[in-house]
Amino acid sequence: MKRLVFSAAVIATLAAVASPAMAESGDWLVRLRAIDVMPNESATISAIGGDVDISDQIVPELDITYFVQDNWAVELILGVTPHDVQAVGTSAGDIDLGDVTLLPPTLTLQYHFNPDGQMRPYLGAGVNYTHFFNENLPGGSALTSISYDNSFGLAAQAGIDFALQDEWFLNVDVKYIDINTDVLIDGAIAASVDIDPLVLGVGFGRRF
């Protein structure tokens, strides 16, 4: 996360000397970000009790924004995040559950407050669908199977674009995504897991 904060500071400094390009209805804005996915995890686990620990992950993210009006836009956010998972504090102790990969496409409706300015803050809200795949238990584990149900949830977003020369932008973005899944371990142990990550992103984009 320190690397993302440092990058945000560099972005603000560069933007201070750049010239703006106006965003208009019908424009497309494509961004590539580095994101830090930080789960706010919790779980209810049947039979053995305990909680869950899910690793943070830094990954690339692609988003595509279309301006339906000068101030209003819709954004599709795409990325893939692998996470290590562990059940902690159970009656059987801490249990390594291996890793799982999340594909969480998210669609938000955004309001851009200053679409033709140097600094362009925005707020967004929308929906998320998360697909879980590549569930891998650790080698040598006594467990034989684990499965995750896919998730539907809400998403909230805030960010700012810094206009550079020509059609280029620098971006800082934060999202909160509601991701909940039911997990079944060895066909017998059920867990209701809230992942609910905070996602911090820094990147650049181009307007078309």
Structural class: mainly beta
Level-2 CATH architecture: Beta Barrel
- Estimated helix fraction: under 10%
Would you give the CATH topology? Porin
Number of strands: 15
- Mean pLDDT rating: 91
Rg, Å, rounded: 20 Å
Helices, by number, come to 1
Signal peptide: 1-23
Protein name: Outer membrane protein
Keywords: Signal
InterPro entries: OMP/PagP_B-barrel (IPR011250), OMPW (IPR005618)
Summary of the model, kept short:
The chain is mainly β.
List the helices and strands and how they pair.
Layout (H helix, E strand, L loop, with lengths): L1 H14 L12 E11 L3 E4 L5 E4 L2 E11 L4 E8 L1 E10 L2 E11 L2 E7 L6 E18 L9 E3 L2 E13 L4 E10 L2 E6 L3 E6 L3 E10 L1
Antiparallel strand pairs: 1-4, 1-15, 2-14, 3-6, 4-5, 5-8, 6-7, 7-9, 8-9, 9-11, 10-13, 11-12, 12-15, 13-14
Architecture overview:
The structure is a single chain. The chain is built from 1 helix and 15 strands; from the N terminus they run αβββββββββββββββ. By secondary structure, it is mainly beta. The strands form 2 sheets. Strands 1-4-5-8-9-11-12-15 form an 8-stranded antiparallel β-barrel. Strand 13 (180-185) and strand 14 form a beta hairpin. The radius of gyration is 20 Å and the shape is elongated. Residues 8-19 have low confidence and may be disordered. Pfam families: OmpW (PF03922). InterPro entries: OMP/PagP_B-barrel (IPR011250), OMPW (IPR005618). This is Outer membrane protein.
Provide keyphrases for this structure.
15 strands, four-stranded antiparallel sheet, 1 helix, 208 residues, eight-stranded antiparallel beta barrel, single chain, Porin, 7% helix, mainly beta
